[in-house]
Structure to design on (57 residues):
């Protein structure tokens, strides 16, 4: 199972989470399929994806 949260600005979301001492597993990275994503860990260590759609046009 995968949990993803779609946000408007993944970099800002990660920055805010980092300030709250959330464990960041993967800093934001742009993927070729049109998203920018980061991965965090919940308190039990489960991975959660934070995703932003990148519009290319």
């Amino acid at each position: 199972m995968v949990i993803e949260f779609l946000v408007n600005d993944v970099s800002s979301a990660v920055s805010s989470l980092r300030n709250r001492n959330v464990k960041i597993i993967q800093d934001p990275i742009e993927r070729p399929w049109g998203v920018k994503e980061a991965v965090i860990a919940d308190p039990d260590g489960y991975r959660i994806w934070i995703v932003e759609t990148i519009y290319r046009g």
